[in-house]
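Subject: Sanity check before I submit

Could someone independently write out the structure tokens for this chain? I want to compare against mine line by line before I put it in a report. The sequence has 67 residues.
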Amino acid sequence: MHRNCSANLKAKDADRSSQLEKLTGELDNNGSALENKETAIKELGMELKNCHSMILQLKLRMRRPHQ
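---
Independent answer below. Compare away.
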């Protein structure tokens, strides 16, 4: 029974190391995906801001009497 303890511990250690590598890879991938989404959100925010500005300019033009 004690003879197998060392082998069992080594197997569990190898399994945990493998799991840690997998989770670390997933974390890196998720971090990259999050950064990409943050960039996309910032770009969309700027586009929205530009649209609001254009709408405001159009409203001001419509209020002015035609010259």
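---
OP: Matches mine. For the report I'm noting this point. The chain is about 95% helix and 0% strand.
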